Amino acid sequence: MINIDSLSLDDLLVKRKGLRRQLAAQAGLQDIRIAVLGGSTTNEVVDLLEIGLLSSGFRPNFYQCEYGRYYEEAVLDPDALIEFRPDVVYIHTSSLNVQEFAPLQCSEEELQGYVDVEVERYKRIWTSLEQNLSCQIIQNNFELPAFAILGNMDAIAYGGHSNFVMRLNLAFACAGVSNKKLLIQDVHGISARIGLKQWFDWERWFSYKILHTPEANLAIALSLTSMVRSMYGKSRKVLVLDLDNTLWGGVIGDDGVEKIQIGRETPVAEAYTAFQEYCLSLRNRGVLLAVCSKNDEEIAKQGFEHPDSVLKLEHISCFKANWEPKHENILAIGRELNLGVDSFVFVDDNPAERAIVEAQVEGIAVPDIGRDVVNYAGIIEAGRYFEPVSLSAEDFERAEQYAKSSERTAFETKFADYGEYLDSLEMSAEIDTFKPVYLDRIAQLTNKTNQFNLTTRRYTLAEIEAISTDSRYIGLYGRLSDRFGDNGLISIVLGRREDATLHLDLWLMSCRVLKRDMEFAMLDAVVDHARTAGVDTLLGYYLPTRKNVMVADHYEKLGFIRRNSSAEDGSIFYLSVSEYAPRNTHIKVAELIHG
Amino acid sequence: MDNLLEELQPIFRDVLDQPNLIITRESNASTVEDWDSLAHVNLVTAIEKRYKIRFALGELQELKDVGDMIDLMKTKLGQK
């Protein structure tokens, strides 16, 4: 696998054609259709995006609109787009595409009027795309104008172009919050990080109508790549941290806890404190933290009891400090957290440890963070590993839920009989047909669940919305609570009715609630709904992947009968509805009143 | 400096993805396969990045072939 993060921009530019050829030869790429509607020449950004996506496991197929016709092709003449059937439409415009800025001498009301006119133009684009296509829309917001003719007042005066662009960006943000199919790419932020002087490329603009420098186009392409990865559930989930000279300065086993560098006493200690704060902020938004360190466990834990340590033991979802090889510990962390190691990012100041982990743990990201703590956060940030495209309450609570899971594991050991343990959890479930309020979470789960997922079919929000109102489908979600808290929406079963047969296109569950008998409760509900709909047979499918071996015998455990012999390209199982008796005994399922 | 033609060989080969391509001072867009307007932009950008030079507006329109390009590059590199 070619790691494009390790290639220089020069290499990417010069070798892009050969890279594309090599990357496209990989097996198992996921097809994705992307239409790019640009206000300037988009070939370079598309080339770089293609390489980014190919190296992320996608095989993109692109459509680019005629030069500058982003509005016309979206709104007035969408036939070509409709025929292309894009999964994603990216509208790539800039402050140069603003049709009419407010005049220099205008009132605040007048300025708002001009902003509204511009925003309305974009809203017509988005609405037309939504009405004509079932796709996700990515729209960038705008960099500040290249020139501030009013100087500092450009951002203050009602007639200032900078002021205009900032108000436009605010309106785009509001539109993105209220429309789940519209994702806003923050070009304002991306361009600020690069700097506007390195952003606009006037020679290429006047010569070829390419507005941006290669550096800018690469930044745009990589940010788009991370958005697409995230849309398809490929964002990473766990930050695995070394300790000595990574989370604090010094070697705790040699120096002792009182000598490690953390806190506010020295510049070095302040820098490690700042890095710990960065890690904690990731943890608070749903990225799990794990520790993997060659250390004595008791001594290593003392580091987190240091009064100045920002990170406490309770923030660490899995703690491995021992003398075993790090790659083995990382595999163990994956098993304990029930998460694939290809969703891990490993951070260690020691290049030898990084090398062995990168070689031995397939799919893990190992950024070269160097040896200087002041750069760690910036380097991790530049990898765009944890990009979210939506934030749900569950993201903010995830770390808590995993903490409670480990509490449960401890609690479990006291019971000899597993049924007794399940009863002691006092579980209650809510199982019902898809509801508007959950569609977001349902689409998110179909995209990020890999292990307990019988078919690994991915659905966009648009598809789930369509299914939720289609009477041919029986789509059920399940939520599960127990004495330790609410696990949230954790299971989805989607059946497609054909005459008296229900094809189970999708059956998935979050690994957070493995071995809780939730699948029995779900099956009871599926059979109930199937009977009401006049179905007599359920057909279950298992499509094996590298990650879903754990559910190979799922249907047989549920009492289905295998219809074909075990085949590499999938197995089929059937269940007769008339002979089915409810199986769930440990979960109380709430009666829902439909009004 | 006289090695510029040799130095440009791998850039042309990589950008056009033709491992066996041999360019001469006389090569131009009509004699080299796939050297279209998009490839032209990519070649110019690649050369600008590699040699840390910028071609000014209009300079490139004057060029008839790789030889002209090399001469222009020599002037620019000499100026640096």
Name the helicity range of chain B: 40-55%
Total of DSSP H or I helical runs spanning 4+ residues of chain B: 3
Label the structural class of chain B: mainly alpha
Largest sheet entry of chain A: 8 strands, mixed
Strand and helix order of chain B? HHH
Mean pLDDT of chain A: 90
Q: Strand pairing plus helix content of chain A: what structural class?
A: alpha/beta
| Cα Rg of chain A | 26 Å
CATH names the topology of the largest domain in chain A as Rossmann fold
- Taken together, the total number of domains of chain B comes to 1
Low-confidence stretches of chain A: none
- CATH-scheme architecture of chain B: Orthogonal Bundle
What characterizes the major β-sheet of chain B?
A: none
What's the helix count of chain A? 21
Beta content of chain B comes to under 5%
The N- to C-terminal Cα distance of chain B equals: 13 Å
What's the helix and strand layout?
The complex is a heterodimer of chains A (595) and B (80).
Chain A: H1 9-24, E1 30-38, H2 43-54, E2 58-64, H3 70-76, H4 79-84, E3 88-92, H5 108-132, E4 136-140, H6 161-178, E5 182-185, H7 187-194, H8 202-208, H9 214-231, E6 238-241, H10 252-255, H11 267-284, E7 288-294, H12 297-305, E8 316-322, H13 326-337, E9 344-347, H14 351-360, H15 373-382, H16 393-412, H17 418-424, E10 428-433, H18 439-448, H19 461-468, E11 473-482, E12 485-498, E13 501-509, H20 518-532, E14 537-542, H21 554-557, E15 561-562, E16 571-576, E17 588-589
Parallel strand pairs in A: 1-2, 1-3, 3-4, 4-5, 6-7, 6-9, 7-8, 10-17, 13-14
Antiparallel strand pairs in A: 10-11, 11-12, 12-13, 14-16, 15-16
Chain B: H1 4-16, H2 37-51, H3 66-79
